[in-house]
Amino acid sequence: MPKVKTNRTKYPGGWELIEPTLRELDANMRQAENDPHDGKRKCEALWPIFSIAHQKSRYIFELYYERKEISQELYEFCLEQGYADRNLIAKWKKPGYERLCCLHCIQPRDHNFATTCICRVPKQLREADVIECVHCGCKGCSSGD
Question: Which parts pass through the membrane (predicted)?
Fold first, then answer.
């Protein structure tokens, strides 16, 4: 007989303050996953999902590091439960990566000539006016923009 899943997760203090926003972002994520992607390229279908994942991580990052409105216990809980991307937040704390959109953009193995994504190039150094990242649809996430 299969095990019955129960919700026995102990939520730390302050969870009730951030829960509505995280639930709303989860609902948006489900909607983005179920949206039809007829007429879009394969990579374009994933752009809304990357965007919502970025919003969730940025929301928790700002609450903990910039506004200091949540405790470390709640911050660690959110990371462990998968509400935010630990590796992306670690990059945001480093200089030059404050506006990084996703980790795909800085991985050289995912790009031609073992470089980074075009969205990491500052706007004043770009040759084209409008650029969209192939991986996440970002229009520019370098810290110099």
Answer: none
